[in-house]
Amino acid sequence: MGRDAEFEAALRKLRGEKADISQEAAEIQDYIETLERLPKAKMLDLFQRRYIRSVLIAFGLMVFQQFGGINGICFYTSSIFEQAGFPTRLGMIIYAVLQVVITALNAPIVDRAGRKPLLLVSATGLVVGCLITAVSFYLKVHNLAQEAVPVLAVVGIMVYIGSFSAGMGAMPWVVMSEIFPINIKGVAGGMATLVNWFGAWAVSYTFNFLMSWSSYGTFIIYAAINALAIVFVIVIVPETKGKTLEQIQAVVNP
Description:
By secondary structure, the chain is an all-alpha fold. It contains 13 helices and no strands. It has helices spanning 4-15, 22-37, 49-67, 70-75, 77-84, 88-106, 110-113, 115-141, 149-168, 171-179, 185-213, 215-235, 245-252. Helix 8 runs antiparallel to helix 12 (215-235) and helix 11 packs antiparallel against helix 12. The model has no long low-confidence stretch (mean pLDDT 88).
């Protein structure tokens, strides 16, 4: 913003008094000048041919992240445990501890394993977790092997939550931040976030209606959506790990 002295002082404070900041300062200035030369993006620009695959990737990941059932299951975990006959308090403690541990362990793995493998492993785990939970409620509804119902329910939910925390929770946001050219990042990111929160509302709003219709059917639907997410990631989503924006754009828009 023309405050060069303050800019350099802030950068030196961040990097250390003895650090050589000249190269980084020049790169930041070049980035800003490049950004200012580019035309201001509008929402309709997202539908230009050169951006359409980036939009499909980012919006698709957001749709699958939410419509795979995460907010319905998260918001109503205690209700799920209660319906399955598992102690609610104990179930919620296990749930919270598992989520924190898996998320913490996953943080250093992201740049080593890559985005696409984590998405695939995560989506596969989501399918398995949904199917286990579906089996639990199927047994409960049909009065079969009742002693196994609580155990299967808690195992299914824990597999689901652990799998979500391992990849599908964070990776759509990471890929979204990497997939768009700098001139449309703001508009595209805002629209992708809108899609994400619309999905969060839709899933949390419909969850109880679906459970009233069919408890095991609800989880089968979520399993099917997460299975489609696996296909989507394999076919559409590129690996962005370690790639520059130019390299990513060459893959997305060959």
